[in-house]
Design a protein that fits this description.
alpha+beta; globular; 3-stranded antiparallel sheet; 7-stranded mixed sheet; Double-stranded beta-helix; binds manganese (II) ion; about 25% strand; binds N-oxalylglycine
Length: about 280
């Protein structure tokens, strides 16, 4: 009789509400036996850290394919350069928005499912990537607040993010960003699993039908709550680290760094399986 050896996931939590370090070897991760357990753990912990796993591009693509339906970039690229250097990323201007808390792809019909970043060159200073758990932040709200926000909808747009990094854009730039469109999303996302998470971030403009001062105050207070210490993890990169996040139950941002320092992360992603409803 063949002896089938099943690999076991070896992991330790990072903080009570977010993050998990995975200690398995690259070979164990790439053999595929652990994928289902890793998917569950990702949904529970929001962020998985693979310290100095040193994925090549091909390994990162293979691993991403084991974690969901692989989603290439719009122009077909499988692996994408995250860099503020315009020589390395033609759309680096757009990435300036990633310095503020956000969910990737809120303007898509389905936001992306999960993403993986691998560190290829470290920043000279700053440049941590921060994550917060929007499931845990929702669950810890008091019942009155949960009732108050239950049925609210929020207007989201890419152009809202423009004003974070370019407060006085020229009209051509604003029109270009406005052409991406606008969408209305629930403030509380009820997932197929029944779990609920907050939908916030730099694309959120205002709460539909609410006085604009009240709306700004509510969105800001929820952002402050969701990104506060107990729901937040700040990843300080070491060369070769890979970090994966569940984009449907977290927000993330880059911390400031010298745009000319060469900091380089390579990103892959999986398609989202459910719309925000
Ligand atoms: C991203 C992103 C943050 C970073 O890749 O979607 O927001 O730290 N990256 O560069
Ligand atoms: Mn992002």
């Amino acid at each position: 009789m063949d002896i089938i050896e099943l690999n076991r996931l070896v992991h330790t939590p990072i903080k009570q509400n977010i993050g998990c370090t995975i200690h398995n070897t690259k070979e164990e991760l790439l053999c595929g036996n652990l994928s289902a357990d890793l998917q569950d753990l990702l949904e529970q912990r929001g962020v998985l850290v693979f310290p100095q796993i040193e994925f090549t591009d091909a390994e990162q693509v293979a691993f991403t394919k084991m974690m969901g339906q692989f989603l290439p970039e719009i122009d077909g690229e499988e692996v994408y350069n995250i860099s503020l250097d315009s020589k390395v990323n033609r759309k680096s201007e757009y990435l300036k928005g990633s310095l503020y808390w956000h969910i990737d792809g809120t303007m898509n019909k389905r936001p992306i499912g999960a993403a993986i970043l691998s560190s290829k060159k470290l920043p000279t200073w700053g440049g941590n990537t921060e994550f917060c758990n929007t499931y845990a932040a929702y669950e810890a709200l008091d019942d009155d607040t949960k009732r108050q926000i239950e049925h609210l909808h929020v207007a989201h747009s890419a152009w809202t993010t423009l004003f974070y990094y370019n407060p006085e854009p020229d009209q051509t730039k604003l029109k270009e960003m406005m052409a991406i469109g606008e969408t209305e999303l629930p403030l509380v996302w009820t997932h197929k699993s029944g779990r609920k998470s907050l939908v916030l971030g730099a694309t959120a403009h205002h709460v539909i039908g609410m006085n604009w001062t009240e709306s700004a105050s509510l969105l800001n207070s929820l952002r402050e709550w969701a990104t506060s210490e107990s729901f937040r993890y700040s990843h300080e990169w070491k060369l070769g680290d890979a970090v994966m996040w569940d984009n449907t139950g977290t927000m993330h941002r880059a911390m400031p760094y010298d745009p000319d320092c060469g900091r380089l992360l390579r990103r892959t992603k999986t398609a989202g399986v459910e719309p925000i409803i």
